[in-house]
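Justification of computing resources. Each target in the renewal requires a structure prediction run like the one illustrated here; the chain below, 871 residues long, is used simply to show the kind of job we budget for.
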Amino acid sequence: MAVAISQVSFEHHRVALGIGEASPRISWRFDGLAADWRQGGYSIELSRHKQNQTGLSQIELFHYNSSDSVLVPWPTVSLASAESATVRVRAYGEGDQPDTPWSEHVNVETGILNQDDWSGAQMISADKETEKNAPHQPLLFRKEFSVNSTSVEKARLYITAYGLYEAQINGKRVGTTVLAPGWQSYKHRLVYDTYDVTALLLAGDNVLGITVGEGWYAGRLGFGAGNRNIWGDTLGAIALLVITSNRKTQSVRTDKSWMASTGPIVTSEIYNGEVYDSRLEQTGWSAPGFLVPDTAKWIAVKELEAPYGILTAPDGPPIQRIEEIKLQEVLTSPTGKTILDFGQNFAGWLRLTVKGKIGETIKLVHTEVLEDGEVATRPLRNATQTDYLTLSGELQVWEPSFTYHGFRYVMVDGWPEDDTPLNNDSVSAIVIHSDMEETGSFECADELLNKLHKNVRWSMKSNFMSIPSDCPQRDERLGWTGDSLAFAPTANFLYDTSGFWRGWLKDLQSEQVEGVPPLVVPGVPATGPQIPTAIWGDALVANPFNAYHASGDLDALREQYTGAKAWLDDGIPRNGAGLWSRSNFQLGDWLDPKSPPDDPGRATTSSTYVADAYLVYVTGLVAEMASELGLGDDKTRFEKWAKDLKTAFREAWIDPEGIVANETQTGLALPLYFDIFESDAQAKEAASRLEKIIVDNEYLVGTGFSGTHLLGLALTKHNLTDTFYKMLGQTTVPSWLYQVEMGGTTTWERWDSLLPDGSLNPGEMLSFNHYSFGSVANWMHQVIGGLSPAKPGWKTARVSVEPGGNITWAKASYLSPYGKISTDWKVDDTGFHLVLEVPPNTDAEVVLPGEKRTLLVGSGSHRISDPTFHF
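Resulting structure tokens:
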């Protein structure tokens, strides 16, 4: 079968417009199932769009004898600021194998790479006093300008804000990104975005308008009612519009010539929602011909300190409207309230198409669950998640601009039933999240497991919101590092997270102080002082390592190595044996099933024990990172350190017979998975004891945040896969399928966020949309689906299906950097049968479940059977 190039990409960008790399690495994926196809060389044709004297693009052609097809070096002179190029690729088969046709042409364009290229654009704000200890009303900024050409060849808008922005040109929205520029560690990195606005400009008079809301930058963040203005207390925008016509450029920049005002958005807060009064709309304010009604409404602007030193192009994809959910049912609560049910818990907002009497106000209260038939607001703590829309008297389409909610249900008050029926035509729900490419799929014979897998994906979508947040609904929504450590391998299978992690990990490292990161990134004062804590701090090591394992990006690993090394060398307080200091606070096995509702950190496994086990683990990972980076001295040092720490751990926590100090599910799973026991015999006996603990617990879960994501992997590693299948199949609390049986559409923070009688858990930690316990999907992908990378970046895949749990078939696929790899297996009376598809330029190690023998296969479609395997 023919081989073709299905996609050409640059770095980790889905759309390579306004990127920050002057010499972006190039990758290409393959289509086709040619048997054992290997690339022997490739050609890159590159057309630079810098006009020469004849007015033609400069075309260059490069040939390489190489099998590399992922993140290959840029082949020529670096791009300048705002320079574009078109690239296409052709790959040549090794030996007498066929060559690919040329790929499609793909465009790449840099953003603003140097401070001087901002042409003096300034960060501007309204020349007025800012709000004190209160929400900030969003600001409008307006600039009139003229285009002296009937043919605009190219126009780019470069823009960001102190807050969240939305831009308009001539009354039309710029781009589709929402909640831009996302959330970063604003003291270290402020992302600007690039938009192609060529089609929005007019010959003659034009207007550029910008609305800025407080967002994460100046809004309330963290627990309680305070904690505002963490990075600044004044909203602002900086923008540069560059217009090219007849090979001449014209620039429009933010400066003191702009005007400012306020509009219909009275407040728009991340936690509390949006207050929108349509009567305050200034129709046409961002279009030509708008007459400023009075000088009191539009005022001058002032300049703020420009963030030139931290302005950066994005690494990951922006937040977008991803999909729309239809209204499932309109309910009436026992107290007569109107409640909308969308049938799915998610993150986003409502879109209303409504007409009512001028001045009527609709109130929308968003919650995840109902309690006694009413919307349950207690889990929101000090977030209200309430939008207010005051109507204009005309038909209007409205959705909020600078907030988002985590919800399934919405209580509606004040709906104008006489003018607009409340139904699917008037209300729909908009799902938003970072626009990552979906890469992984999974399906099996057990419908409950399929629903669990869908729930895991929904919790990821709800929380990958520019940062990896813990939840999307209450007064938190923070980038807890420990949660991300547990879930990252699952996330890396479900979506292409390479660019997403690259940006967030830069913030994680930049916020280290003497090697110690905050518990949440970006750092928020409400979470307390910056203290060293295992697992949460260990994300400095595990997350970059797992990202590298998924993507094969050695440069991204190199970027993070300094921070990982500093964590071990400088950040961790140690005792005399090199283990964690016994006086140090630890979060430990957070939300162990037996932790009391009012004390989620009181686990059955010692938090210091957990911390020491993870210390052994991450020290070994840093040794592996050093090895991959070719740092021989560091590799030797950290390997010895890891070996010494294993000895110290055994002396501190394991007696001579191999009995650990904490004989719990987590207490045994960690040293089993981390290879800490002194001998194979001790590990085998420990695995047997772990199995007995699970059996005695009726196959119910006994782990919290630190143990859950490794429990199944530890059992499989020690030939106890059937035991975990039995755990995975349980439907009573605590278990994964309990949440499914209770009607959950996402994964929960607590194993029993909803109690068996349908009432809410009395505890405070009560999110119904947390991804941490959804980390079990990593085991499902590897063991049921049989897919994992054997080499970084999936150059070699590991295919190791282990059927069990009376699951008679399963399918899984992963869109790797080389192309799609997929498994489709079944077990019947004649044994185990697998259909395996491997993309070109890769191979796969296949482990058969019955004979346990390993096959190495190349690209193509393979039908593999093992007649010795039966349930």
